[in-house]
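ARCHIVE CARD
Drawer: 12
Card no.: 0347
Subject: one protein chain, sequence and derived structure
Cross-reference: see card 0346
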Amino acid sequence: MDIAIRNNQNPLLKPSTIKPSMEGMKIECLLNPGVFVFEGKTWLLLRVAEMPQQIEGTIQVPVYNEAGKIEILTFHKSDPELNFADPRVITYKGKDYLTTLSHLRLVCSDNGVDFYEPEGYSPIFGADKLEAYGIEDCRVVKIENAFHLTYTQVSSFGVGVGHIETEDWKTFKRHGMIFPPHNKDCAIFEEKINGKYYALHRPSSPQLGGNYIWLAESPDLIHWGKHTCIATSRKGMWDSARVGAGAAPIKTEHGWLEIYHGANEQHRYCLGALLLDLHNPSKVLARSETPIMEPMAEYELKGFFGNVIFTNGHTVDGDTLKLYYGASDEVICLAELSIKEILSTLKF
C-alpha cells in the first residue's frame, strides 16, 4: 500500500534544470540524491549523468582516462559485436561500458522544494582508475562535525564503495574504496552502537547468494568487518530480485528504521522498510510485506528507465519523513511519509 504524499511540484529537478559540466556534453538524467542539512538549508548531492552529443549511426561513450580527463569512445551501431539493447549500458567484445558518465553536484534550498546551485561549491568528479566510469548514488551522514559520503565507484575493475569526508563541502578527504566489488548501496549509521560504527551495504553474487542487504562494523569508518546478511530478496514478492539500503537508518524508540529499495525480475523498483534492533542492528524486528511507496505517477512510470523509485536521502522533522528520490532514472522528486504510519505497516 503506497502511503507517500507526493509533492505537487514534482518533479523538483529535471535534466534541463542543471548545466552540463563541459561543452559537448548533455545531461541525460538526474538521479538519487544524498540529502543533508547544512547552514540552515536543505542540500541535495545529485548524481548527474552526462553523455556526449551523439553522432548518427554511432554511440558515443564517455570515460575518465588515466589523466583524469574525459575521453570519448566511439562505437558503430552496425558493428555485430556491439550490443546496445539496454539504454544504460552497452557491451562490446564482452566488455561493458556505461552510456553515461556520472558525477556529484550540489544544490540547496531554503524551503526544501525550490533548489538552486550555490556559488563556490564545486562538483565532485571521479578521481582515479577505480572511478573511470564515474561516481554514483551518494549517501550522506553527519557524524559529530564531519559529513561522510559513501558512494558507488564504477570502472572496468567493477563496482565498489568509496568514502569521502568533509566538514565545509569545499575541501574533501578521500579515503578510497572501503567495500570492494561487487558492492554498492552503503549507508552508515548516524551514531555508534556499543562503541562501534555500523554500515549497511549490498554485495552481490551472480552464482550463489544474491543482491542482499548486509551489515558491517568498524572502529574507524575505514576498516570494516564482521559482515552479516540481514535481509534477502523474497521469491514471489515485490522485492524478489534485489534489495538495497537507502540512506542512514532513522533512530526511533522502537528501533532503527531503514527505508530500502526492492525490485522484481521486471526491474520495477519500490520502497519498503526494515526495523532493526537499537542495540543489535543485525537483528531484524520487522519488515514491509508490501511497498510503502511504488511507481504510480507518470514521472515514475515513464522516463529514461521507467517504473523506478529509488531513494538514498531524506530529512526528518518530528514524525515527518521528507523523502527525496529519483524517479524513472531521470528526475528528482519529493514525498512525505509519516514515520508512525510506516511502523504500523510493518510485519513483526
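Annotation on reverse: The first strand starts at residue 5 and ends at 6. The radius of gyration is 19 Å.
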